Amino acid sequence: MNNELIGGLHRRDFMKLGAMGVGGVSASGWMNVLAGHAAETQAKHKSCILLYMSGGPSHKDTFDLKPDSDGAGEFKPIATNVSGIQISEHFPKFSKWMHKSALLRGMSTGEGAHARASYFLHTGYKEGQGGLTYPSLGAIASMETGNPLLPIPNFVTINGGRSYGSGYLGSKHQPLNIADASKGVANLGALVGDNQFNSRVSLLNEMEKAFLKDYSSEAGVAHQTTYQRAVTMMKSAQAKAFDISGEPSNLRSEYGSGKFGEGCLLARRLIETGVRFVEVNLGGWDTHENNFERVKSLSAQVDAGMSTLISDLNQRGLLDSTLIVWMGDFGRTPKINQRGTKPGRDHYPKAWTSVMVGGGIKGGQVIGKTDKQGATVEERPINTIDFMSTACSVLGIDYTKQVQTPIGRPIRIVEKGANPIKELLA
Amino acid sequence: MLNRKSIASKLLALALGFAIIEIADAATPETKDTKPQTNQEKKLVKTSAKPIALKPLIESKVLSAIIDDEISKKIKEEKVTPSAKSTDAEFQRRAYLDIIGRIPTSSETTSFLENTTPDKRVKLVDDLLADDEFGKHMADIWQSLLLPRISDNRRVQTEPLTLWLEKHFNVNTGWDQITKELLTSTGPQDENGSITYFISNASVDKMTDSVSKLFLGVQLQCAQCHNHPFVDWKQNDYWGLAAFFMKVQAKPPGGKDTSSPTVTEGKGLNKNKKTLPEAAKFVPATFLASGEATLNTAEPYRPVLANWLTSKTNPFFSKAMVNRVWAQYFGKGLVDPIDDMHDGNPATHPELLEALATQFSASNFDLKFLIRSICNSETYQRSSKPNASNKETDIALLARMPIKNMTPEQLFDSLTTVLGAASNADKKLGKVKAAKNQPKGARAQFVTFFLPEEGTSALSYETGIPQILRLMNSPQMNTTIIIQRLVDKNTDTKTAIEKVYLSVLNRMPTDEESSRMTNFLSQATDKNKGLGDMLWVLLNTSEFTLNH
Fold it and tell me: What ipTM goes with this model?
C-alpha cells in the first residue's frame, strides 16, 4: 500500500478504503486528487512558527516599556526602524525588523495560572470547558492547511514545554516533539541496516494484512496506517531536515548557541521542507525573583534567535508566507514586588504584549495601547479568541468553521464573539 | 442452553424484582425528549434519580447468564449471528490483559493450552482475580483517573496512592468502602496514601468535577458556570455538591514547608476567593438530584456526602461503577461516554445496566464478583473475529468482542513479559536521566510517553509516530540480542518459531505461518539474526499490541 496515499485521506475515508479492500489498488487516481489539493493548499495557506515564552514575559521589560511609570524597571527603550515605535534596549537586532512586525499591546486574557493560561492561548478554549480536550493552534493548522503528501508531521514542537496536542482531532495531528534540536528526532534511525530493515518491514506488512483480514477493526487499521507513516518518515528525504549539523557555523552562531537558537534554526529548516506549524519553546520567564538579570539574558536569546530566523526566512523568500508569533502565558505586574534582594514581577494577564512578524501582515505598527503604568488596556483590547481568530485569519484558516468531535459534537475552531484584528491583515 | 431464553425474564426478575415494571414505566414517556434539545425549545432532558432497589444477591453464574440473555436478546432482534466462542488462546490472552494487565508468558500459555480440564476458563478467571497483579492493574487504572496529569500535580508523589489502591483491590475491599475512604481522607500522605486524591484535586471545583465524573457517572462541570444546555443540571446542583468540600484544607507538596502533604477538614468555610472560580455560588449542600443535606457546622461535611453517595440505594453510585467496569472489559460503557449518564443518553442495554447495578449493590460492591460474572459470560468469551453477518454491525451490540488498544501500562508490562527480565530492561531504561519534573523509573517514563489524550476511546489506536519510532528503533528493542535469551541456540527451527509465537502472540503458529517463517529464516544469513528479525516483526504487529 502506498504510504503517502494514506496521509492525505481523512481517517474515515481511509477506513472505508480499507473496508472495501482497495489497499492494493493503483494509487494514481488518488494521487492526482491529492496533488491538486496540495497545490491549492500551498497557494492559499501560510506556515507558522510560534515562539512560545513559557512562564510569561514581562511586557514592561520587553515590548511595552513605560520609563515614567511606577515600577518602570531598569531597561531603557530604544528606537526601531519604524519611527515612533520603541522597544527594550535588549532587542537591538530585532529593532531592525520592526517594519515587518506588529506589536499587539492590548493583550488581555484573563487566565493568571501558568497551565490554564498556556492552554487557553494555545487552544482558544479554557481548560476543561465543556468536558473536551481542545486542539492547539498547531494541530488546527495541521488539519486545515497541512500538506497531506508530506512524509513528516505538519506540526512539530521543539524544546519541550506543553503545546497541548491535537485534542479531539486525533493522532494524525499530534505534534512530533523534538526534545533537543541538536539531536533531532529520537529513534529515527533503524537499529539494523537498510536491507535487514526492509525485510522486517515487508514481513510486518504481510502479517498485518493477514491479521486485518481476519480481525478487521478501527484500531487495527489505524495501527497499520501509523506504522506506515512512521516508516515513510524514516526513509524520506524530508526527514533530513531534522539534522541541523550541516548548517554553516557562522549562521549557527548568529542564531545563538543555546537550545532556543538551535530550535529556531531547526524551525526554519522544517518550514523550508513544508512543515506547516513549528513551535519553539523558551522557558524561564516566570521571573518572580531576579527579574531584570533573567529578562536581560532571555531577551538576548530571543533577539539572536528570532531576528536571525526573520532574516534567514527573508533571504529564502519565505518570510511573507511564514507568520512568526512571539508570546507567553501572560504579562507581569506593572509594579516590582518586594521579594528578596533581587525582586521581580508577578503574573499579570490583564495587559500584555505579543508580537507577530511576517506572514504577509501589515508590519510596522502597534495595535492597542496600555495606560501610563502598563496596567490596563486603553485601546483595542485583544482577548484570547480575538488573538486566535487573528492568527487563523493570517494563516488562511476559516476560524468560524465547525469541526466534528469524535462523538459528533460540532465545535467551532474559535468560539463565537471573536473580533480579529483587521488592521493587521494586508 | 435451550431453556435459557424461556427463563430470561425470570432471571432478570431475580436480579431486579419489580424493577422491570418500573423501568418500563420510566422508559415509555418522552422518547422524543432523548434527542438533543435546542436552546430555543428550552425543554431539558430530565434526569431521574431512581434509587437502586434492595434485592437479594444472586450467584455469579446466574448474573453471567443474565448478561448473556440481555445481550443475546438485542442481537436476535437485529437478526445478527454472533461470532463464535473464542479459542482458548484468544480467551487466555484477553483475560490476562483485562484482569492482570499483561499478556501471559510462554510457559503460562503452554500450560493453559495443554490443560484439558473442562472448567479451566472458570479456574483461570479465579486464579487471575486472586493474583496480586490484579490489584496492581486496577491501581494503574484508578491512579490515572484519580490523579489528573496536570502541571499543578507535577510535584505530587503518586506512589502512596498506588500502593493504597493496590492493597484494597487485592483484598477486595468493597467499592463503597474504598470510595468512602477516598472521599473522607484526612491526615498526612506518609501515613494515609488516600489523601493523594485531594492533594491532586486541590480546589473545590476540581474535586466536584472529579467526584461527579468518577463516582456518580455524571458530567457536572458545565454547570459550574451556567446551567447545563441539554441536561437539567443547574448551577445549584454543581455548587450544592461543591458545598461538601468547602471546609477541606489541603497542604500540597512543594514550597518551603517540607513536611508531608496533608489534608484536613477544618471548621471554617474555605471562602478564599483565590481558590474558588469566579462563578462560585454559596448554596446549601445538596445530594445530587436527591435533596438538601442536613449538616452540623461543627462536624466535618465530607462523611455526610460519603454516606449518601455509597449507600446501596444511591441512584448513581452503583451504576457509575458498573458502567466503568463494563467499559474496562468491553472497551465501551453500556452508557457512552462513560461518565455522561443521564436520561437523554440512555444505555444500549438499560435493563442489563439496572440488573448489574442492583446486583453489584447487593454484593456489597464486590468488584471481584462483578468481574467474575462478566468474564464467565459467553458475551465476554466471544471471538473478536467478525463473521459475514456481524462485520458491519455496531460494536455496542457485542455480537463480537470489541478489539481494544492496550493502555501504556499494559503495553509496558507485556513488552517486558516478552523481553524477559523486566528488571533488566528497567535498569537499562532507568539509566536515562529523568528530565526535570519527569517521573522516575522506566515504567513511569514509558507510560508518560505513551499516554493518550484524556477521553481517547479504548477502541481506537491513537498512538503517535514518536511512540512507534520508539517501538521500532529504541535500543531496548534490540531483538538480535534479546532472541538469544528467549530461544536457546541449539533449538530446532520449528520449536524456535513456536517459542517466539507463544511468547509474543500467545498462540501456536498456523501451518501456513510456520512454513512462511521457516522460509523467512532460511533466507537470513544466520538463524539467530533471522529469529531476531521475526521477534521484532511480531512485537510490532497489531496482533501483539491490540487486546483482541
Answer: 0.87
